[in-house]
Amino acid sequence: MNIEEFRIALREQENHGPDPDEVWEQVRSRLEQEAGATTSANRNPTRRTWTRPLIVAAAVVLATSAIVFLVQHRDTRAPAAGTPAPVTRTSEPAVTPSAGVAAPWSPVVQSWTKALTGLARPVILIPAVPYTLVGEWEDTVHRNNMAAVWAGKLDLSELGDGFPAGVEAVDEVRWPNGNSRSVTLAGPHDAAEGLAAYHRANNIPCGCRAITLQDPELVSMTSGYPDGIALPAWSFAVKGSKVRVTWVALRPAEMVDGAALDRERTNGGEQHTARVAADGSITVSFTGGAPGTGGCASRYTGDVVETDDVVAVLVEEVPRSESEPQTCNALGYPRTVSITPASPLGGRVLIDGVRGYPLQVTTGL
Amino acid sequence: MERGDVDRGGVEFEQFVKDELGGWSRFAGVLCGDRQLAHDVLADTVMAVAARWTEIGPMSHPAAYVRRMIVTTFLADRRKVRRRQTYPTDETRVLDTGVAAGTAAVDTRLMLDRTLRMLPTQQRAAVVLRYYLDLDDETAAEHLGISPSGVRSNISRALVRLRVHPDLTNLEQDL
Fold first, then answer.
1. Which of B109, B134, B167 is closest, CB to CB, to A1?
2. What is the average pLDDT score of chain A?
3. Which residues are paired to A237 by β-bridges?
4. Is the ipTM of this structure higher than 0.90?
5. A161 vs B: CB within 8 A
6. Which residues of B touch A14 (CB under 8 A)?
7. Options 1.10.600.10, 1.10.10.10, 2.40.128.270, 3.40.50.1110; which CATH number does B92-165 get?
8. pLDDT cut 90: percent of chain A above it
9. How far is CA A127 from CA A9, A86, A228, A266, B80, in A?
């Protein structure tokens, strides 16, 4: 891995940051608690006036006593040669508890339903960053250009407002199962603005020169998502470089960012997959504990939650009884659980009901 | 105001935080290398922002200032005590190229996780500021509260440590 690849790999670590919503919930809760405490203190002006001086005075007295004691016992406290010095354990600071995690699947379904409202069917899922870089920045420009992309410092003035000659504003997206639907494309300028806006959200200060995008070309990019569809995308030349940058050419109303709804950011990690049979039953495959009936065998149950937009599959391990071993090394077995929704999946999105990511469907819908 | 003084900037503060929290979360994740630690560091930082909102709100680049606060909180937190996790101290772990599990992307992430944890906090922060945020020496130095030459020195030492890993032997400093 060279330094350029290291930068990219480091940037990919950002998917593992905390959930902003959970951080905000915790902050809001702490602010409200603080507000309550402040209000309570204000109701008791006497306590408010005297508490702090009393604490300060007590601290001064204690500190002075400790210094006097240490000075007086300085020599006697030295350990004898060969005797280990006493170890004083300091108590650990309090760890702030995380925001409470609600019931595992209902927030997932709610989030997905909200995200899918108003979208055309079948839904187009995109990965977190529908962006690719084709080629490597030349040595002379790579520091500037990489920083400019990451800061969203893009000059779009050469892109114009319309579509390149011969390119229609409507395209068709096809799914492997034969579904298809037409989509309205975002023009090159609007798509590039999406690329800039995504990176500007990072608020990275950049003393770099803006890079100029030009020569838009309509291409296909793999969504990298479970349904494996090819998405229309704009590929832009970068002035002064051979590198091209690509960004999905769909309007925001045409797609949904599946990664944003993945509660545990499992993107890249192992995910469950699903097979939908002709009779409508769904078999979920995953890696789990050993099958069978032994003390270290794991048993799983499947459940399903359905809405007009989403089918959420919930796979849970049956808790062990207290007489069984609670820790087992028998892991890593291919396991399956089957469920049957009340109505066929159709154009609805199939998701992992616990973690929230869209399930990869391996055979026909 | 029902929520008293802590409401501070009220809607303005809340909107600012909600607008910026996504970017801060991504940055904190890379900086801390641990989602729970990043969560706590970020929450503590936002609490501090709330306490000083009347001072921070009018700044010309409040979001950038808050990012500095995230770095400061991370460094201060780690200086107090390594409280949340214990890591194996056996240096040979970096040579563990054992079983490849999952995709190459996951392998790379785990490898980076492991090797970055070898770095002292200030070196890690310097690497993140340089190679993730692409900050120049002066700006990174402001974030870390050290001199620009200190930033270069931290990055240099960090890269020496990272190059111990077989996959990172080609890391060259591009100062």
1. B167
2. 75
3. A214, A244
4. no
5. no
6. 26-27, 29-30, 132
7. 1.10.10.10
8. 9
9. 17, 56, 11, 12, 38
